[in-house]
Amino acid sequence: MSDKKKAIENLGRRHFLRNSAVTGVAGAGLAGGFGAGALMSSHEARAAENGIEVAPGELDEYYGFWSGGHQGEVRVLGIPSMRELMRIPVFNIDSATGWGITNESKRILGDSARFLNGDCHHPHISMTDGRYDGKYLFINDKANTRVARIRLDIMKTDKITTIPNVQAIHGLRLQKVPHTKYVFANAELPIPQVNDGRDLETPDNYFTMFNAIDAESMEVAWQVIVDGNLDNTDADYTGRFAASTCYNSEKGMTLADTMRADRDWVVVFDIEAIEAAVEAGDHETLGDSEVPVLDGRKGSKLTRYIPVPKNPHGINTSPDGKYFIANGKLSPTCSIIAIDKLPELFDDAIEPRDTVVGEPELGLGPLHTTYDGRGNAYTTLFIDSQVAKWNIEDAIRAYNGEEVNYLRQKLDVHYQPGHNHASLTESRDADGKWLVVLSKFSKDRFLPVGPLHPENDQLIDISGEEMRLVHDGPTFAEPHDCILLRADQLNPSRTWTRDDPYFAETVAMAEADGVTLESDNTVIRDGNQVRVYMTSIAPQFGLTEFKVKQGDEVTVVVTNLDQVEDLTHGFVMVNHGASMEIGPQQTASVTFTADRPGVYWYYCSWFCHAMHMEMTGRMLVEKA
């Protein structure tokens, strides 16, 4: 064994201070915990050296989009500062913006508005020719089997789709080329087909599906039934193949049952063959759903099953388009699958394991792999609490019997890392500058805040030969994954446009009422339904008083006439659970019942002017 390899294997968490902090690698992380005063000057010097110091008034080089985990939202961070810029509500209720409260957001949520929770895992950005195009971000909800789309021009959720016939959407990735036509989504947990009370105690009749959602319409295009379960997924750079891990090929109903086999598999989907089968009518429908369902179980021409060790979790496509890399979780290895061998596999010219061209041993609990675009891979080791940097081509050479050390470095992270993500790594443009590691535990890294600890997002400089930990950041409620793209790849709007489809239905309602939203301040009564139209311009609402009767259903529509960037108004009706954000040139509406007589004030909730506190009005509710 080489001296270098021995040194790598000897690295451990217990040596973190000796091997990292003393050389300045982890100054930023320790500055938030013990020894902060002594290390502060070292931290500042290291921040400047590594280029992570973003001074007041300066802008970050990258946007980062974080899944909000159990909060059901998406968070926007600047990289490398790791400053949180915005939160985008998706599957949650958000009183600041009125998401889940306003009529516009309820229309988007649709029938699923009845759910008050979400569990976001995997945010991914739409692509054209394998490069981020900055148009959409997609995110899953494992808790309630949904997929959402966020418009990145306004940073708002604009579509939510509930996936039929399945439960627990987990792994989610996008078609990369020629553009993001499909959002690929794995349903993790097998259920009876149809799930209407039949086969409750017959797990042999449980199945799950690989799902394709049309990225523009957000309708489910087709579903493919598979053996076992489905975990994570990714797509290739030809547009033909997608691949998913299966950690429960046994289809076990208990923990012990899911670990019986020494190997599980990666299932590969031939997208072109699936589309042809749909076109030919070679499918069925299930229950009340009209979505085409195809059979992709073993023996199907639509899929191939590649055995890999054991309970694999993440699967990640290398940015050069050559490999799918599946991470072993209960095996210390990753499996390198050569994408150029997949056509032969589907032609039955080779065996499934012939597509595996490398299986490097990296450490305990490999979960996810990301890339620097220079031929190196970075894999999180959950049990070892480390990131392993390794060279893909060297690992293939070692698999073929050469004496070569593919491991480049192991770096301690804190603690139990799950996802990691390097800058631009899901695209052809992976630039190898920054690596974010999302650690599930923080333990001693931050001030104690009670039994529930924050998680720890860590920023690592990977621009040189050695990884260097430069920042720790506490975060709440398990942000599961993230994605980074250059700031110039996005062009967010500064104000709304009056013809934006986001509030088109509310505009149509006003037109039907004969109301000009940009100028009219009026009340329309239709039986016990009252529509109150008002403008807002800092620091005054167009209506400062209106009268309704007890029991009326009241819809308040506010149009913000301010044209100044960052001049947002709010509307809150006191004691009625109604609040919303109204950005510059936006129209928003909220509906509630005036169920008690009396005087009720409304006010602007977003600070907009020196006279902001005076921006109020009254709703007068007469007794029925």
UniProtKB/TrEMBL annotation:
Region span, COX2-like: 528-624
UniProt cross-references to PANTHER family, sorted A to Z: CYTOCHROME C OXIDASE SUBUNIT II (PTHR42838), NITROUS-OXIDE REDUCTASE (PTHR42838:SF2)
Residues engaged in binding Cu cation Z3: H122, H419
Name of the protein this chain belongs to: Nitrous-oxide reductase
Enzyme class: oxidoreductase
UniProt cross-references to SUPFAM superfamilies, sorted A to Z: Cupredoxins, Nitrous oxide reductase, N-terminal domain
Positions of Cu cation A2 binding: C604, W606, C608, H612
Native organism: Halomonas gemina
Keywords attached to this entry: Calcium, Copper, Membrane, Metal-binding, Oxidoreductase, Periplasm, Signal, Transmembrane, Transmembrane helix
Oligomer and partners: Homodimer.
Cofactor annotation comment: Binds 2 calcium ions per subunit. Binds 6 Cu cations per subunit. Each subunit contains 2 copper centers; Cu(A) (binuclear) and Cu(Z) (tetranuclear). Cu(Z) is thought to be the site of nitrous oxide reduction.
